[in-house]
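User: Show me a protein chain along with its predicted structure.
Assistant: Here is one chain, sequence first, then structure tokens.
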Amino acid sequence: EECQAIYSHANGTTFYDADTYACGPVPKNYDGSYLTMISADGLMFGVINIIGNFGTVFVDQSYWQSAIAARPSSAAKGYLLGGIVWFAIPFSLATSLGLASTALMLPITASEAGSGLVPPAVAQHLLGNAGAVLVLIMLFMAIVSTGSAE
């Protein structure tokens, strides 16, 4: 099989396990493609993310304080621009690092990918230990930024 050939050593032995590693077409994606916007799981993630983010905005006091303090015309433009800019970060990271892990054929299990370990794995593979440290710094900065908004 093609997947066993991809995940094999030079001597012909393979470490491919269909229950552990992803290979071949993606279920529930249009034609099984990795590069598609027609994905049932992606649509479900988007709906859950939008509902969760609306809940965050309506419940979090810091959003209300910012909205009340700003002029209405500035607040509307600021929130729309902020939403567009915010969307670019997870979309670009998920797309580029997810495709990089597939192109590099990194042995990432489905459980590891589901736990969010694809970015550090790709960064560590491409940049060595410095890449892993950079991802850790990025994660730390996101957590500290979220905490400082409160």
